[in-house]
Amino acid sequence: MLATDAPDHECLLFKIELLAGMLEEADAEDAERVSTVRKDARRLLTSGSA
Question: For the whole prediction, is pTM greater than 0.85?
Answer without folding.
Answer: no
